[in-house]
Each structure stands twice: as structure tokens, then as C-alpha cells.
Specification:
alpha+beta, L,D-transpeptidase catalytic domain-like, single chain, 3 helices, disordered N terminus, 177 residues
Length: 177
């Protein structure tokens, strides 16, 4: 794996996350893959925009383990890892219900795996991370200069530090094409 270096992220809005704005009352994360941007909201108010890197195969939705695509859809942060191999990380609740339903239909997962995923999602817990659908999708550090991850969303370390401090377990995450 290589880690690309790049210039500082470009803010699309004249907003900055300051200590006085943290903690956010209703954090929400929106990723726009085509724009290579992550938007941090507090409710409906845009707080900060970050440049991102994606999976090595950035176009299209994640379908299966090893496709190196970043999933699309609605998720939530299921864990915060301050001991990540990628500086800091926020776990994204992939697979979600549409992925699980498609995986069952297409024979990528069993009925038992589907049911386990659905139970975890209902309880806002960690969905199984080791099925034919893949898993271990995180928002993490170590560089936003290129698409280099195996399906994660990568930010610069300073940026993931801000996001990590703003996001809590349960924070909604929407990933758009």
C-alpha cells in the first residue's frame, strides 16, 4: 500500500470548525465521491468541507469483498478508533440494509448473515465485517491526495482529527456517488 502526499485540503465554504463550535449538537457527515469532498454538518448547517481520497476503484457502489470500491448509501458511525493504523478512524456501518438485501438476492451472503446484518443495523451496532459483501469501511487519516484505500474514505491527519473530535458513535453518514 502506498500513501500519497498532497497539498492541504481546499475548503469550498468560508467556514471552519473551531473549538467554540465543538461539540456539535447534531453532527452529520456527507461524502460526495465525484467531488472528492466530505462535508461536516451540524444539523443542516455546513460546518466544514474536507478533501478526501477513496478506494482504488472509486466509481460505482461497493458490491463485494475485495472490489476496492467505497460504498454508497446511508450509514452511521459505529465506532471511533484512536489507535488506528491510519492515525484515527471512524467505522462506517457497511453493509447497510440495501447492500444486505442485494447480497442475499445475489448469493453473496447467506440468510443467516443477512439476518445478523439486519439485527445489528436495527440496534445501531456493528454489522458483520467479514462476509462476501466486505467490510472494514472507515473514514480515516493518512492522506487525501489520491484514491488509494481498499474502499475507505481518507483524509489528511489534521482533518480526521477535527472530524474525530466532532463525530460520535451514531453520527449519520451519507455517501453519494
Amino acid at each position: 500500500m502506498f500513501v500519497a502526499l498532497c497539498a492541504k485540503p481546499i475548503s469550498l465554504q468560508p467556514t471552519t470548525a473551531t473549538q467554540s463550535q465543538l461539540p456539535l449538537t447534531a453532527p452529520r457527515i456527507v461524502v460526495k465521491k465525484a467531488e472528492r469532498r466530505l462535508f461536516l454538518y451540524d444539523g443542516n448547517k455546513l460546518v466544514k468541507t474536507y478533501r478526501i481520497g477513496l478506494g482504488l476503484s472509486p466509481k460505482g457502489d461497493k458490491v463485494r469483498q475485495g472490489d476496492r470500491r467505497t460504498p454508497e448509501g446511508d450509514f452511521y458511525v459505529f465506532t471511533r478508533n484512536d489507535k488506528s493504523a491510519f492515525y484515527l478512524s471512524l467505522g462506517v456501518s457497511y453493509p447497510n440494509a440495501p447492500h444486505a438485501n442485494r447480497g442475499l438476492r445475489d448469493g453473496l451472503i447467506s440468510k443467516s448473515q443477512h439476518d445478523t446484518i439486519m439485527r445489528a443495523l436495527k440496534l445501531k451496532k456493528t454489522p458483520p465485517q467479514n462476509t462476501g459483501l466486505g467490510g472494514d469501511i472507515y473514514i480515516h487519516g493518512h492522506g487525501a491526495g489520491s484514491d488509494w484505500t481498499w474502499g475507505c474514505v481518507a483524509l489528511e491527519n489534521d482533518d480526521i482529527r477535527e472530524l474525530f473530535n466532532a463525530a460520535t458513535v451514531g453520527t449519520p453518514v451519507t455517501i453519494l456517488p
